[in-house]
Design a protein that fits this description.
Helix content: 55-70%
Oligomer: single chain
Strand content: under 5%
Number of strands: 2
Low-confidence stretches: 1-6, 34-47, 513-534, 551-555, 569-603, 607-631
Number of helices: 23
Length: 687
């Protein structure tokens, strides 16, 4: 055909082409090739008809059936060697993050990355299959940058692991404080038997004396209050000492149920799969998938769901960015999970290796073959992602590792703070159970009950802290889940929004973080004045002692007054100067009536409404009124006067006023008696 065309054109087909003709042919061929490249670009290699497409890979990753799609890939073209850089799968609790990890032991069903693989496999691979054929190895800069990036990922994994561990322990106080049950049991019993039952008798005796003394004042209300308070404290202390561990566990279960309800209502919510999304609930299923609708349920605890969310958003996505160049590309969505599964061990596989060490080589060999087949397929479909897999984009890996650290810090800031406050609240319950018998021994006496009331305030404030910060952490984790799963938000904006959510949550809940908030006290001030209760206690005892002595003195004075009145009646004189309706003939001052209205808290009583205090003898040479002013100095810190009284109506002050009135009116009484005697003498002389 070509020869016929050449003869038709007047050319000799047997003559060799000249140099000029060959040059023209070469130029024409180059032009045709360039035109084809410009207007007909090469299409990426499509999957073979019998291979899984993108949707199948994603579905297989969720169902745990990745091996089914991997088996459809082409076989490896070379044998596996140690120099190829295929990562050796690590255990779920290995590395820095594994120091905080523990097997969540989730029932079969919907799981996540953490609940399935822990913190295994978050190392960037340095894949180099050419080392088998003796080709030039990768440049040394690739290994250097990969080492730096792996160090960054190790730090990020540790931060996320700490946040997850604190959260899981905060929502499961039994695993956190289970070791303390024996301590609480033995310490509470010992303190109750050796402190409360011994010294409590002394305190009860003091309460009895106090009630007897108050009975002389006919103050039934105060006596009943004191007796009722003593009974209440004894009942509380006895109940807690009888069931110390049960008391702590009862508070734990109540609060944990409240936190679970909050997390189920807010988030992260259970991610149950519908029958259309779960092959295990379908009658027509792919081969190898059992029929079990229970596998479509999410049996994870709220804390484990949050750990899966954080691991997915912070660690896995940044691992994809450094391994395949992107976390949202088609290649990453299609082969990312299979590549990660080939370089990590699940909790179940780690247990199988521990039980049967002979299976280790079989499992590791299978994962190495899977990794090689997936990498070979990535090289065919996406050469750019393959360059990342080989470590040739070292600067991008270092950047991905740095972003992982920043993301972990932004996420863990509020989460760790909330978890620590919840853990502290559960610890306060246990220490309160141990401390109640000691504090209750003194608190039976109501004037010395400040320590017991403060302990109750601290426990109530701890309950509020647990509920409030638990709800805040739930809302925060729900916001993190929404932010990280919104593909339209760029990575830097996701990190910024997560950090801002944590800052706003802390600012809103900050006033409730103080354990003594309900008492209206500053925590630093409370720590500085932790021993002030004993001063108040002994001050009250001092007042009681002064009152008892004053009551005895007042009784003597009253008895003397009665004898004088009887003597007056025997002599035929009126018992009272004003008994006949006339004003008494006295020149002394008339004492003011005592004020019954209390003064505001922390302020001294109103002198205008209070009776005149007792006047004490002033030392020689002292300014006039100096002793009285010293006794009237108001001390705001103690809420009393310098002489220990809290009001002019105090019993001691009343005794002093009675003594002062008697001494002031003694002269008037004598003059009145003398007047009566003169009147009698006049009547006798002039009948």
């Amino acid at each position: 055909m070509i020869a016929r065309l050449a003869r038709g054109a007047g050319l000799d087909p047997t003559r060799p082409a000249s140099r000029r003709e060959r040059l023209v042919s070469l130029v024409l061929a180059i032009l045709v090739a360039a035109t084809a490249v410009l207007f007909w670009p090469a299409q990426p290699a499509a999957a073979a008809p019998d291979q899984c497409d993108g949707a199948d890979w994603i579905r297989a990753g969720k169902d745990g059936q990745l091996q089914r799609c991997i088996n459809k890939l082409p076989a490896a073209s070379s044998t596996i060697s140690d120099c190829m850089g295929i990562p050796t799968p690590s255990a779920p609790d290995s590395g820095f993050g594994g120091w905080f990890a523990s097997n969540p032991k989730v029932k079969p069903g919907v799981t996540g990355l953490y609940s399935s693989y822990g913190y295994s496999g978050y190392d960037y691979p340095l894949y180099n299959p050419d080392c088998v054929s003796g080709a030039s190895p990768l440049p040394s800069s690739a290994s250097t940058t990969t080492t730096i990036a792996n160090g960054e990922m190790m730090v990020a994994t540790g931060i996320v692991g700490a946040a997850d561990a604190f959260r899981e322990k905060a929502y499961n106080p039994g695993s956190m404080w289970g070791w303390a049950d024996k301590l609480v049991q033995s310490a509470t019993k010992s303190i109750y038997q050796k402190v409360f039952t011994v010294f409590g008798v002394v305190t009860i005796a003091i309460v009895g004396l106090y009630l007897l003394w108050r009975s002389r004042q006919a103050n039934m209300s105060d006596a009943l209050t004191t007796a009722g308070w003593a009974v209440l404290v004894m009942v509380v202390v006895t109940a807690v000492a009888a069931w110390p561990v049960l008391s702590a566990h009862l508070a734990d279960k109540t609060l944990i149920s409240s936190l679970g309800i909050v997390h189920d209502a807010v988030g992260p919510q259970p991610k149950d799969l519908s029958p259309a999304q779960c092959p295990n609930a379908q009658r027509q299923r792919p081969p190898g998938i059992p029929y079990d609708p229970g596998l479509c349920k999410d049996h994870r605890e709220p804390a484990v769901r949050a750990s899966d969310t954080a691991t997915q958003a912070v660690l896995y996505n940044n691992w994809l960015r450094g391994t395949l160049g992107s976390a949202t590309s088609t290649t990453a969505q299609k082969y990312g999970m299979a590549l990660y599964e080939s370089s990590s061990l699940s909790w179940q596989e780690a247990q199988d290796i521990q039980r049967h060490p002979s299976q280790r080589q079989t499992i590791l060999k299978q994962k190495a073959e899977n990794f090689q087949r997936i990498a070979q397929q990535i090289k065919t479909e996406d050469p750019d992602a393959y360059n990342y897999l080989q470590g040739k984009e070292g600067s991008a890996r270092v950047g991905a590792g740095l972003i992982a650290i920043i993301s972990a810090l932004a996420f863990a800031f509020f989460d760790i703070a909330a978890s620590l406050l919840i853990i502290l609240g559960f610890l306060i319950f246990r220490w309160a159970v141990v401390a109640i018998p000691v504090i209750g021994t003194i608190a039976i006496l109501r004037p010395a009950s400040a320590g017991f009331k403060r302990l109750i305030n601290i426990v109530v404030a701890a309950i509020f802290n647990i509920v409030i910060f638990g709800a805040g952490a739930s809302i925060y984790l729900f916001a993190v889940d929404l932010i990280m799963n919104t593909a339209t938000l760029p990575g830097w904006l996701q990190i910024t929004l997560v950090w801002l959510c944590g800052v706003v949550g802390w600012l809103l809940l900050r006033p409730f973080r103080r354990i003594t908030q309900l008492g209206g006290k500053s925590p630093i001030g409370e720590i500085a004045h932790i021993g002030s209760w004993h001063r108040r206690f002994f001050s009250d005892l001092k007042g009681v002692a002064i009152g008892a002595a004053g009551a005895a003195a007042l009784g003597d004075i009253e008895s003397q007054d009665d004898e004088e009145q009887k003597g007056k009646r025997k002599r035929g004189k009126p018992a009272e100067a004003g008994g006949d309706g006339q004003q008494p003939a006295t020149t002394g001052p008339v004492p003011d009536a005592p004020s019954s209205s209390p003064a505001p808290d922390g302020a001294p009583p109103d002198p205008a409404r209070s009776p005149e205090p007792s006047r004490t003898p002033e030392p020689a040479g002292a300014p006039r009124g100096a002793g009285r002013r010293d006794s009237q100095v108001w001390v705001p810190e103690t809420g009393r006067y310098a002489d220990g009284s809290d009001s002019y109506d105090d019993l001691a002050a009343s005794v002093g006023r009675a003594d002062a009135r008697i001494s002031q009116n003694a002269g008037s009484v004598d003059r009145e008696l003398a007047g009566y005697e003169r009147a009698d003498a006049d009547r006798s002389r002039n009948p």
